[in-house]
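haha ok so turns out i had the wrong file open the whole time. this is the CORRECT one, sorry everyone. sequence first:
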Amino acid sequence: MKTSHIILNAALLLGLLLPTNVFAQENTLKLISYNVYWGMRQDSTENKAKFTEWIKAQDPDILALQEMNGFTQRKLQEFAESYGHPYAILVKEPEPDGSISFPVALTSKYPIVNVQRVVDNMIHGLIVAEIEGRHYMVTHFHPFSAVKRGHEIDLMLATVQSREPDNKWLIMGDLNSVSPLDKEEYNNGLVLNHIREDMKKKPHNQNLINNELDYTVQQKVLDAGFIDTFKFFHPRFEASAPTKLFYDQSKFPLRYDYLYVSGNMKNDLVKCEIMKDEFTDIYSDHYPVLLIFKK
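then structure:
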């Protein structure tokens, strides 16, 4: 038998013996976006060992985090290194007066470059950065004002246009707003009536426009050509909140956590899901969102 045939047969045999996801993992990136609830408050272990254990098990290449209360850049760096991410960005340090600011963060196995930390006109901050040639935007929108959420998304989309709009972009985070792609789910009026009652008790909560649910924030992202990756794979509604950990934002299913990609990434998409397991059921009030895409 010719040497070339022996090599070919060996390669084919190896392909049969090894699981297909070995090859798939080599050619994909795994991204998780997670609102971790008040700086991982549910994890009382030293150095947030429970979260570290869960993140290690998931082994993401890139991790976007919201509500990183209590973290400094140094503490975030140490935390990220504990699960194998040598690169970490916190949008801002804790406030000098000790007030809670709910900062966002980004960690990665790969260098995070061309970083921009935006703290003006974004209540919880915005990280704009580049990883492996793609542009990432991580944020957490205003929880009490539909109008201000509109301003925040306008700022983000203007940032895309002012930089390199033809490149590959990803937008992620707890966007505290409903999507027109989920409108059928909300047509029963349960969420709307709950918010109306909540606004009577808490006048600072201005989460409706003309006393109705506001779909315009997510509509602007869709109109800009971005793909809602979860809906791309799962046309039917699935909530990202609440978890089994009770919280007072709503008693009804909501999808507030999003992972968008620019239209030129459509053929890169491999998988997206809302991650529900024994850990995510109880360690935050939101479930994380997973996206796998081709390098």
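Confidence is low (pLDDT under 50) at residues 10-24.
again sry for the mixup
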